[in-house]
Amino acid sequence: MGVLMFLVSLLVFVAGGGRYAALAIGAEVTTVPSYASTSELNAYWQSLFPNRAMPSAILDHCSAPFGSERKVKESEQYWSVYSDQLTKTDTKIYHNWAHRIASEKLLYPESIFTAGSKMNLYIDRAAAMHSAWLRHDTANSIPMSTKNFTEIVKTFTPVSLAMARGMWSTLSSCEHPREVAGEQKACTMSVQSMHGFAASALGTNKLRAFSTSLDVPEEGIGSPSNRYRVAAVRAVTAKAAANTVTCHSMSFPAALFYCHAVNPTRIYEITLQREKEDNDVTVSKTPPVVRALAVCHVNTSAFDPTLIYWVKLGRKPGEASVCHFLTRGDVLWAPASVA
Predict the structure, then answer these.
(1) Whole-prediction pTM
(2) Where does the signal sequence lie (predicted)?
(3) Most buried of 1, 191, 239, 259 (most Cβ within 10 A)?
């Protein structure tokens, strides 16, 4: 009888017709998220932007493994609701975009983006590039809050401890109040929600979406030995400052982007060539040519005055712009009229 009940419980599977399918295994019920197919996303994208390809940072999540196919790479214990394996102190919480990019090495003055300039190139790694998009209704039904952390983790079971820590960090970022005056922000878990936020923040449905070149490795670029020369600079938006929205991929079992607008901005595509260093054995690990998008925040008057960036620059917030490169997994939105 016990074996029979186990088999019966294992076969209780409700497919389709709702936001979730439910799989009951014994007394434990696990909700299985409903993921968006590539054809669905392509159809939606073409309805908005006919004959325009999806940016690679969005497309990467279309081919991601999902459901039972999703692999957890970390070779460690799984998080369990019955254990005390995760506490708030275990987690690095990113409060805003300045904390998100993690290091002031990633910040540059706008003046360096001129042909012939040389720099130590730092581009942050892309987070969770291979997590799959959820269907829009499924994404909207997830109660995105640290208060619902256990419920959310159980939705995506199994979840490794490393991913659980990343999920807590992401949820904390989504909940944290804006720290830059005038910033607009939202965490989006579907292509529809991402586009909706960008359209609302920019006040138009006529948008262009960009992602940085595939020249940029997923793991980013970061080492004092990575010396690059600026070969070319192209203004993506009009030379005058414009309003844009940047969406950063975040650590989560499904595709999730932290989108925010800290305007006005100037956007550039920078082509960089690696400098030859005969004595540096690590140079060969970095790409010889990199094309990357850079965002320059023009109005910095409300930025954190304690950043070492200002000391190095000899300026105060409001006296100079702050620029950073986009990662391989980020998406930039701009009004079509300026891009």
Answers:
(1) 0.81
(2) 1-16
(3) 191
